[in-house]
Amino acid sequence: MNVTTEEEKMAQRLLDEAVWAPSVHNTQPWWFGTRGSTVTVHAELERRLSVADPDGREMLISCGAALYTLRLAARHLGRHPHVRFLSDPGRPGLIADVAVGEPGQATVEEERMYAQIRRRRTHRGGFRLEGLPAGLLQTLRTHAYDEGVMLRIVADPRARIALAALTEVAEQTHRQNPAYAAEMAHWAPRPGSARLDGVHDDAYPQTHEHTDPYFAERDFARGQGWGLLGDDQQDATGVVVLITTDTDERPDWLRAGQALQRVLLRATEDGVCAAFHTQALEIPQLRDFIRAGYCDGAYPQMILRLGFADSEIASVRRPSADVSRPEP
Ligand SMILES: Cc1cc2nc3c(=O)[nH]c(=O)nc-3n(C[C@H](O)[C@H](O)[C@H](O)COP(=O)(O)O)c2cc1C
Q1: 3-state SS assignment for residue 179
Q2: Which of 53, 110, 117, 279 is the S-S candidate for 106 at Cβ 3.0 to 4.6 Å?
Q3: How many A from CA of 102 to the centre of ligand 1?
Q4: Single pTM value for the model
Q5: Does ligand 1 lie within 6 Å of residue 218's CB atom?
């Protein structure tokens, strides 16, 4: 007999949200163990990008984003999540337990952010010429700070130009690397694919407005002309921000991922979208250069642009049933 307890149902509800976290190339590099209402987060190491992300930094940022989503979903259920970080040399993918703790009503802001989990989409392209809502950047900085990381706003136009140029260098360097191109091809399926992971052709535009400065997009279409047709003029770069950490270890990557999702959900609440440009952070020399020149020596974990956009971007996920099993 298959009896589902209230506790198991609660874990199920957390997982149904967690799978909507963003992940590099939509690799969804996670699986979840369940025991009662406790969810154990694991990195699925075979889904790491072995060329672009050999250390698993972006993989753990992605898992951190899923972890924050679990925490927020627990708040929505009116409970306090208790996170215990785990490390076991015998199980290198093991990340953390999220236990559903004592009752405590979610705040209005938590409820609003929760409502964005499935609505949020990664934007690829220019933004409308429209400033961000007053006070939003400061609010996002506070959310990042509360997760133990820093959200840096790149206000200096020269720094924006330089970061855009470094992104272009990284993108062209990647495109010259056959191993990188093969990895990219694996995670950017051809149109019509039934896969439930990767970046599909309805997630990016066919052509890009050339914003000034221009942040190069990833080459998901690989010259095949794939992508969404758009007719609206969106040619603003948006606000460029960096997420940085003081050190550069596993816990920092998980912190950066939790902060990333928290910042994205809060921005989405105000209708603000984010475009990601992490290409330069995948090339150690360029990452060092950005660290020294634009982060006061802190470690850059994410480069984002924020703004308003009108586009109907789609995304896919593996269902929670496919990525969870009883915790051994
Ligand atoms: C660590 C990390 C790095 C990412 N880097 C990029 C990037 O360089 N370019 C891009 O277009 N999207 C990037 N993304 C966004 C993912 O492609 C996106 O989250 C995934 O395709 C799922 O789509 P969704 O966010 O619309 O749900 C990144 C996401 C994460 C978590």
Answers
A1: helix
A2: 110
A3: 34
A4: 0.98
A5: yes
